[in-house]
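Structure tokens please, single chain.
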Amino acid sequence: MPGLTPENAEPLLRAEGLYKHLYQPSLAFWRARQPRTILRDIHLSIQPGERIGLAGVSGAGKTTLLNLLLALNGADAGSITCQGRPVRPASTRALRWYRRLVQYIPQDPASSLDPRMSVRELIREPLVRLSVEGHHGRRIDEALDRVGLDQKFLGYRPGALSGGQAQRVAIARAVALRPRLLLADEPLSGLDLPVRAKVMQLFNDMSRLDDTAFLIISHDLSVMPRLCERTLILHDGAIIEDRPTAALFGAPEHDHTRALVRAAHPDLAIMMPAPAANASYPVA
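Here you go.
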């Protein structure tokens, strides 16, 4: 709706008070299983067209949160809504409306590309499965063009693609659906510099022209300034910072964030005070 701002617009997606626990078996059979909190009190709001980064080291809870947002798992507490409708694990048919609106770009394209299918079939498959109306051939051609792949690749199978080409096919599968929100897990991984630039331009164009929102998940904070207007830092299952990306890089508030920024941009180290002695540092 014209005139709405991020402050007064209805969020495209909202998560409120999410908790997720992992129940570990007790060493003593007479004791109850002990829960370990993986996510704690997660609040997240995504507006149409926003480009948001979610960064954190391995084990911070990024994958767990992603699985909740994809409705693959349910939260132990809290709620997720999309355009005001509740989102929770359900049958494929019951979630069809959500899958049309929210798409996922996996970090490992090999996990999402059926080796028996051609690129054309791979891009068409979600259009058919989600009962998308309209001219599928036109959507397939447009998606392939937007990710910078020649039409000759339509007949290729995944085994004939390089890692970067497979990643672009995975992106094309999602783009063909014209989703309102893209959840992208390390979307620039394995891409050479010219292709990285093209994918970043595609994401920026989709945000600006199509009002598509993005949640970019990465352990590498260095990609955030080029892709994201806003960045969230996930640490030990909690969001410890949620700020405009420029402000977060310019003056990190949390010691852990400061350590991440220093690791991503060593040239900024002289501009920031050193983290406290007990700060957690990213591991490779």
